[in-house]
Amino acid sequence: MPVTTQQPANAHRLAIGDFTLTTLIDGQFEAGFGLLSNIDETEAKRLHDASRRPTPPRITLNAYLLETGQETILIDTGFGPLGGGAGGRLFESLADAGHAPDDIDTVLITHMHPDHIGGLVDANDQPTMPRARVLVPAGELDYWGGAIPADADDAQTQQFEAAHRVIAAVGSQIQHLEGNAVLPGITRVPLPGHTPDHSGYRIASGNAQLLLWTDIVHLPSIQFPNPEATVAFDSDAAQAAETRRRIMSEVAESREPVAGHHLDFPGVGYVVADGAGFRWLPHVWTP
């Protein structure tokens, strides 16, 4: 009899007032320490080894489903067919949570990197959620929908090409998201640096709230204790580091829970100050 190798669940629910936020795992992908900058590689390896995480490092990829009672909202869509096998489990996870693609009223995008928009299309570039409107921060849509910069490296070129591919497939569904008022209970929080209009979303219902900070952290074992450490995916590394330290300081002081697309599943918890850096306190699972 073969040994079971798959996790039995890909979804995790959390109440935020009268809302329900469900983490949906899309996958994991490996990343070398060379991905990092502004930190000595020996120190990065020391921090990672101290965390007891596997080596080479693995970056988790989550998406988030928000049920408000009025709308069913998917916040980012994973890699879809753009990940080369690194992700693509979103709709399996959605089914585990009891939903189908046609249940989605709104797709809310944080930024237009391939691992956040790829699930909008299938392998044949057909929309996977044709009934949903797709809200994209205006600065993201204008930047990634524009011409590829002449000085773009190979990675940036691939990111632009992926964005163009998705926009071509679902363009009729896309709406510019202007300003910070999004939907009842949802406010955009500008977190620039990772991309030009990288956006988090604060979710509030009743007396409860949570900040979904999307790609503030990619490698938790390294970037919490050393927020200045940046990754090659950052469009503006200096701004990304500044934004990361600022928002970590804010939520550490306020004790507001946060969720992140690259935090270890289920990607929900708290930030506390710890020496010159910070520490992650994961949400405790309850049935």
Short summary:
This protein has 287 residues and is an alpha+beta fold.
Task: Describe the protein.
The protein is of the alpha+beta class and 287 residues long. It has one domain (11-282): Ribonuclease Z/Hydroxyacylglutathione hydrolase-like (Metallo-beta-lactamase, Chain A). It is built from 7 helices and 16 strands. A hairpin with a 2-residue loop joins strand 15 and strand 16 (277-282). The protein is globular and about 50 Å long. The model has no long low-confidence stretch (mean pLDDT 95).
Task: Compile the SSE list and pairings.
Layout: E1 11-16, E2 19-30, E3 36-37, H1 41-50, E4 58-67, E5 72-75, H2 90-96, E6 106-108, H3 114-117, E7 133-137, H4 138-144, H5 154-170, E8 174-177, E9 181-183, E10 186-190, E11 199-205, E12 208-214, H6 220-223, E13 230-231, H7 237-254, E14 258-260, E15 268-274, E16 277-282
Parallel strand pairs: 5-6, 6-7, 7-8, 12-14
Antiparallel strand pairs: 1-2, 2-4, 3-13, 4-5, 9-10, 10-11, 11-12, 14-15, 15-16
Index terms:
287 residues; 7 helices; seven-stranded mixed β-sheet; globular; Metallo-beta-lactamase, Chain A; alpha+beta
Strand residue percentage: 25-35%
Q: What structural class is derived from the secondary structure elements?
A: alpha+beta
Average predicted local confidence, pLDDT: 95
List the total number of helices: 7
CATH fold description: Metallo-beta-lactamase, Chain A
> How would a textbook summarize the main sheet?
7 strands, mixed
Our count of domains comes out at 1
> How many DSSP-defined strands?
16
* Low-pLDDT sequence parts: none
Query: Per the principal axes of the C-alpha atoms, what is the gross shape?
Result: globular
Rg from alpha-carbon coordinates: 18 Å
Name of the CATH architecture: 4-Layer Sandwich
CATH class assignment: Alpha Beta
Order of the strands making up the biggest sheet = 1-2-4-5-6-7-8
Element-level helix/strand string: EEEHEEHEHEHHEEEEEHEHEEE
CATH 4th-level superfamily: Ribonuclease Z/Hydroxyacylglutathione hydrolase-like
Give the CA-CA distance, first to last residue. 31 Å
